[in-house]
Amino acid sequence: ITGRLLLSSVLAARLNSHKPWIETTYHGIITENDDKVLLDPPLIALDKDAPLRYAESFEVTLTEEGEICGFRIHGQNVPFEAVVLDKSTGEGVIRAKDKMDCELQKEHTFTIQAYDCGEGPDGANMKKSHKATVHIQVNDINEYSPVFKEKTYKATVLEGKKYDSILKVEAVDADCSFQFSQICNYEIVTPDVPFTVDKDGFIKNTEKLNYGKERMYKLTVTAYDCGKNRASEDVLVKISVKPTCKPSWQGFSKRIEYEPGTGSLGLFPSMHLETCDEPITSIRASIELETNHIGKGCDRDTYSEKSLHTLCGASSGTVELLPAPSSSANWTVGLPTDNGHDSDQVFEFNGTQAIKVPEGMVNTNLKEPFTISVWMRHGPGAHEKETILCNSDKREMNRHHYSLYVHNCRLILLLRQDPSEAENYKPAEFHWKLDQACDKEWHHYVLNVEVPSVALFVDGTMFEPFLVTEDYPLHASKIETQLTIGACWQDNSGHDNDTESVSEPTSGGNARMAQFFRGNLAGLMIRSGKLENKKVIDCLYTCKEGLDVQLPEEVAAAFNPSQSSLTVEGDDIDAFDKVMQHISYLNSRQFPTPGIRHLRISTTVKCFNGESCVAVPDVEGYVMVLQPEEPKISLSGIDHFARSAAEFESQEGVTLFPELRIVSTITREVETDPESEVAEGADDDPTVQETVVSEEIMHNLDTCEVTVVGDELDGEHESLELDMSQLQQRGLVMGSSNLGLVITGVNSMANYEQLLHLIRYKNWHTEALFDRKFKLVCSELNGRYVSNDFKVEVNVIHTANPVEHANNAMMQPNFINPVHHASVDLSGHNLVNAHQASVVPSAATIVIVVCVSFLVFMIILGVFRIRAAHQRTMRDQESGKENEMDWDDSALTITVNPMETYEDQHSSEEEEEEEEEESEDGEEEDDITSAESESSEDEEGAEPEDQQGASRQQQLEWDDSTLTY
């Protein structure tokens, strides 16, 4: 029985019927850089299947079912593992897989589970305990030292003042615990300095500082964490001492240089306002760019006002009443001017001078809309009327048909209706009260007149009249009118029917001027039939230089119309400083006027009481616009050639500038590379630091003038001609006289070049003419930049063999096409080719002299030969023997062979330059210009026979004339 009981108990003990048991929560501590975890409570797993160790009544046999085989950790990326120390007792330990880093993770939480060894020898049917939570804290060690956030600290203090805090230094510690990461103390290492630092890093002075004693202090500061680790590197602190504060603008450069063509230039890049720590509520600054001494108030393109109208897209029909004095417009010769080219011509009226506009210049029909525009600078003046423009009766009546005048700082336009109107009141006088009319500054006035309304624009801004008075229309009369500028034409013999005040005569005689103007006028224009639109008006007024700024929302700004004055307002001093630092000067002219532009900044600062508590002195400086790299306009081409008399007398005439080239270059100074200078040679002058480089540029021309050198043109038998349609296509105007012709208007160099190619000289009486000389000059910006004098000499060949010209005429159509292409190619800008072409005439001149001498000798020999053969020649002509006639032609062509030698030379050079195919008769290509090619193409079929017949008729006449010798 006892044996059976013992067996049954052993079998029962071997059955795994219980789960292991562990605590529900464990707390552990691990020190970083270590792998041992101290757990509370200790890790022990219990299993009821385990036999009692100390049974007294019977022998205990150990079985696997009661042993603890392991612990399992649950969680992702848990850096710990659990190890069983004793299977029978269930003791275990948790340890780190790697050394812990508190700075990476301070705490770890995961679950753990114990399991027994199961049943049988293979450990099957093992049982697991419940899951327990484990919290492990990583203890920090003081492995890091404090590090300062900045490499250097800077501050500025005022002398004679003690500060509670000047600046704050701050260090950080990378340790994870509060104790070791906390900065417990700062310390100034530098001895004997009047500063102290507290535990929070605030530095203050211990005594009042003296700017005269020390302007800057340099301190070395260190830091300690609460583990008493010192900073790895001490930090440098710079404290500048300023003298007693005076509110002012700081960082302002008095002289600011502007290089033309560089775009926008910041005027105050480092400027800031020092307010001496006063509590500021608002700041207002006015920046003025003073340019009153430059032209009409600022740097504008110095084209004539008429050219500016063209550039701005104004309609045609503009009449310039105050043009620069010239041979074609001489009525402004007597007026004082500014004698400069910095702007359009400015005329001064001193109260005693006025001018009459020639008849026919202006034909204004008051029924049509018309526009008057003028630049005016006028001071307060007297209390009398001062006339700008006046159209009055030439005699007897003294009626003012229309006039523009200033009276008591008012601008007044008088506009009397035509007599044909109905006899009722109509608006006759329009009054504008304007401060601009008396401020001694330049202003631009445009009046758009469309009866019965008148719109006035002053500097691009529209003004309504404050008073309009009405009057009856004028009475019908046949009296002619006189248009005057600077005064009104009066006549003492009549009466002033318009009840206008008349000044006392300034000189004897009945006819006189009255109501003189005192001030300056420029660009007085009148246009009939169309009004100026706002876009054109703005373009005419727009200044090429001015101030510019990019504004944030918290700062407001306002420009004057010419952008020469800027007002900035704000309440945030930092934002205000940024705005001031972004104010720039801009000059968009290609060749700006050099010189000084004065700058002034006026500032008003207000505090909390709404009054000006801080007085900021005005700041003055100037922008120095440097001298622009001036263009050199070069005219080049063939300056000496000969043509037959028949060509001068032909309908087309002779082209004066067939191969003219207009090229503009600027010379730049470029700094050379010092290394290259040494490499090239040490013998050079060491003072030479720059090299000169020529660069071709493109810009406009506004005048080209062709004048006769020597005797004036005889209108009865010679002329200079140019196709007017070609002028109109390019918007240019031509004036001509017996001295030559002038082409005016703004256009490109290429367009001017094409037009000058088409100028022709005709002379239908060449018997006494051997040569003619002409001079060509082109200019830009109202004469500011002038080209070289390009002179052309044309020789007339009086040939003894007109038949040769007939042959030439027959051959011309064969060479029209290649010559036409050549003329197009020559219109390009190439400095090298231009110089090559200009060298040819010097050799050609020598050839011509030799040819003329040889020609005279051959003519003398030919006279005797012709006299002997005359009878036979007449018989041959009557019987139609053209063979002998051809033989005579070939014999006589020897008289022009010397000239053909010159033509051959020139033609060969032209062929080399253009690298075109060779032509057998290159000398004849030279005689055909591009314009002649065009005319020849139009009449290609009929011209050769006509010219041949005409030439043969000339031959017979010439032979008859020779018989008189």
UniProtKB/TrEMBL annotation:
Annotated GO biological process: homophilic cell adhesion via plasma membrane adhesion molecules; positive regulation of synapse assembly; positive regulation of synaptic transmission
Gene3D superfamilies in UniProt: 2.60.120.200, Cadherins
Domain of life: Eukaryota
Residue stretches of biased makeup (Acidic residues): 909-946
Keywords tagged on the record: Calcium, Cell adhesion, Cell membrane, Cell projection, Endoplasmic reticulum, Glycoprotein, Golgi apparatus, Membrane, Postsynaptic cell membrane, Repeat, Signal, Synapse, Transmembrane, Transmembrane helix
Compartments where located: Cell projection, Neuron projection; Endoplasmic reticulum membrane; Golgi apparatus membrane; Postsynaptic cell membrane
Polar residues bias: start-end ranges: 948-965
Spans traversing the lipid bilayer: 843-864
Cadherin domain boundaries: 22-148, 149-249
Repeat found in the keyword field: yes
InterPro entries: Cadherin-like_dom, Cadherin-like_sf, CLSTN_C, ConA-like_dom_sf
CDD domains: Cadherin_repeat (cd11304)
GO molecular function: calcium ion binding
Topological relation to the membrane, as annotated: Single-pass type I membrane protein
Chain segments carrying region Disordered: 900-965
An annotated GO cellular component: neuron projection
Main location group: other
Similarity section: Belongs to the calsyntenin family.
Name this protein carries in UniProt: Calsyntenin-1
Organism of derivation: Takifugu rubripes
Organismal lineage: Eukaryota, Metazoa, Chordata, Craniata, Vertebrata
